[in-house]
Each structure stands twice: as C-alpha cells, then as structure tokens.
Amino acid sequence: MSQKKAVFRRFLRRKVSVVAACVLITIIAVCLIGPLLMSTDPNAQDLLNAYAAPSAEHFFGTDNLGRDIFARILYGGRTSIAISFEGVIAGTIVGVIIGVCAGYFGGVVDTLLSRFIDILLAFPGLLLAIAVVAVLGSGTQNTVIAISIFSVPSVARMVRGEVLSLRTNDYIAASKVMGETNLRIICRHVVPNAVSQIIVNVTLQLGTAILTASSLSFLGLGVQPPNPEWGSMLSQAREVLRAHPLQAIIPGVAITLVVLSFSLVGDGLRDALDPRLKNQ
User: Fold this and answer.
1) Alpha-carbon distance 231 to 16, whole Å?
2) What is the pLDDT of residue 280?
3) Banded model confidence at residue 214, pLDDT cuts 50, 70, 90
4) Which of 159, 211, 213, 279 is the most exposed place for a label (fewest CB within 10 A)?
5) Mean of pLDDT values over 100-117
6) In 3D, which of 158, 131, 157, 155 has the Cα closest to residue 142?
C-alpha cells in the first residue's frame, strides 16, 4: 500500500473527521458557488420589509434594513473563508522561512529569530491581531495582514522543532559531503519531510483565523459595513437578540460549524499523518 493510500485509510477510520470534512466541503462549496447562481444583491435594502420572517423569497428572513440574510450569509462566508485562507497561507510561508532558517543554521540566527518568535508569542493571538489592525486601520486587506502576522509564530516554532530533529539525520550530512548547497538541502530534504506537520498546522490555523476575522469584524475592526461578514452580522444582531434571535443564530451557527469542522479535520489529519501510527 502506498503512503498516500495508507494516510487516506487512517483518516477514514476517524469517522468524526470524515463527517467534519464533508460538512466543511459543503459549506465552502455553497459559499463559493451559491452567489454565482443567485441574483439577490446582499446589500440591497428594502426598509418596508425589515425583519421579515423566513419565506420562499427570503430563506432566512431579512435584517434591520430589509436585506436578505441568506444572501448575506453566502457572501459573508465567501469573505470570511477568503480572508482566512489568504492570511494563513501568507503567515505559513513567512513562518516556514523563519522556522527553517532558525532550525537549520542555528547559532546567532537561531537566537535572533527565536527571540522574535517569543515576542510574538508573548501576545495572545486575538490581542496581537487587534494591535495590528489598530495600527494599520480597519478593512479587509488589513485583516488579512493581521491574521498572517497572527499565524507566523506558531508555524515558525513548529517548523523550527521539526528542522532541529531533521538536520541531524545521516542523509543531511551525506548531502553536505556531496557538495549540495544549503538551499538545495532545505528545498529537497528538509521542507518535504516537514510538510505533513505544516499541513496539519495550516488546517488547524484556518479555523482559528475565521474565528479571529469574525471577532475583529464583531468589534468593528475588520470588514466594514455594508460588506457582509459573519462577525459583523453577529454584531448587528446583538441589538435585537431577544426580539429576533434568528438574526444572531444563523451567523453564529455558521461560524461554529466551520471552526469546529476545521478543528476536527485537523485532528484527523494529525492522526493520519503521524508516522507512529503507520503500522497500526
């Protein structure tokens, strides 16, 4: 059995992760494809139809300005997912570079980069994101930057630990003896052997990133109105929570499902990619 088939088979054994992956794929597909198939403008206002109950015309009803909640959920999901992926991927790239350099070269390079990572880790994740947005200003692009900076330290620390254990292997020493450059050794031998842990970290970070982006929008520091986003929708709904609880329940459930699904899928991938389980 090939390694990929073995990993896939171990992942399928974890039924909870398989269900979470199906839920996650469904939500992402609906948010990405749904807006292309519907003609409803998520920002179109109809004040005479404010707080309308769910119906065939408005599946989830309307908000305080008569805007279709279903359309705003789909467009908001697309925004939240895009921010999450862009921020985590950018942060992962920077984190991998820092972690590889710190772990592979060691010495002064490791000391300086490790202290930089420690400084970032000293701040709680959400507080660090808030500080970045407070300096750069609110908006979608600045939210992506905040999430990328927020994602760097955990990736860098994880990659550094992996590289420290890999660089002592015999094939690394053999590659140096054969005259391969450090860049070639890193690209051909070090990074590929750390890819499994990087994938798991990215999956877990995506859920945290969506939660962070929603939190920033909830506080008014992320995506700005009238653009739909799950966190901002939840913030607007808190004012009418008792009279119209559905306004808050729908975006809240969407955030919960996506974050929980990413977490469960990450756990499943971690178990499947763990080399200690290869003989089980």
Assistant:
1) 26
2) 45
3) very high
4) 279
5) 90
6) 131
- Cβ contacts of residue 107 below 8 Å, gap of 6+? none
Q: Give the pLDDT confidence score for residue 277 in this predicted structure.
A: 47
Q: What distance in Å separates the CA atoms of residue 247 and residue 234, rounded to the nearest whole number? A: 7
> What value does the mean pLDDT of the chain take?
88
**Token duo for residue 112:** 């300086």
Work out the percent of the chain whose per-residue pLDDT is above 70: 97
DSSP for the chain? Answer: --HHHHHHHHHHH-HHHHHHHHHHHHHHHHHHHHHHH----TT---GGGTTPPP-SSSTT-B-TT--BHHHHHHHHHHHHHHHHHHHHHHHHHHHHHHHHHHHHH-HHHHHHHHHHHHHHHTS-HHHHHHHHHHHH-SSHHHHHHHHHHHHHHHHHHHHHHHHHHHTTSHHHHHHHHTT--HHHHIIIIIHHHHHHHHHHHHHHHHHHHHHHHHHHHHTTSSSPTTS--HHHHHHHHGGGTTT-THHHHHHHHHHHHHHHHHHHHHHHHHHHH-GGGTT-
Residue 81 pLDDT > 70? yes
Alpha-carbon gap, residue 7 to 9, rounded angstroms: 5
- Mean pLDDT over 245-272 rounds to 91
